[in-house]
Amino acid sequence: MRGKELRLIVLGATSSIAAATARLYAADGATILLVGRDQDRLEQTAADLAIRGAERVETALCDLAAPQDAQRQFSDFSARIGGVDHVLLAYGILGDQADAERNLAAAEDILRVNFNSATAWALAAANLLERQGRGSLVVIGSVAGDRGRRANFIYGAAKAGLAALMEGIAHRFADKGPRAVLIKPGPTVTPMTEGMNRSGALWASPEQVAQIVYRRAFRGGPVAYAPGFWRIIMLVIRNLPSFIFNRMEI
Question: Given a cut of 90, is residue 138 above it in pLDDT?
């Protein structure tokens, strides 16, 4: 299903990857509900999507990192646009690894936002999609979850948990109709990575990642790397012997 019949809910709609993906749906004439906690940015994004061809764009103000009743809230989101076909979960925080190692509250915050709250929304969406027997749940993970590295292992632990969750949801969906896909971007030029050295061929733009998100929502799963060459890179990194891996600054 594409075009005006398709209804999309974007959780974390003001993220760069989410906004770039929503633009692709808008060009197809989809109906879109944007969910986030910054009303001004939601409205700006909605106006942009309307200009780009969306059939209808709604916004919902919600602190996704602190769901009160994710199942009820998600059902309300779906009702706002007359049902849901695709769900994109695209919010998260990187956090400060050095601070989180010393400050357990900071570590808990990284895990709460990137795993605990994401789990609540993913399960709420999965339950609805399974009841209707169709649809796609696409969640943005990270290559950081593939192997714990000293540079970001707390963030990576949250993303590793999210990967296991999505793999399980995909298995649960097998032969039932819906699709569950985890997208694992490599380093991407977004506000989250500001301050890093973002030069080099390994960095992707939000638009590059969005193209993969969009394609995989219609076909594929349970895991897609973005860009695809990260599948090979992470295969190598996962299988490096510890005596080599421990000498690397990555």
Answer: yes
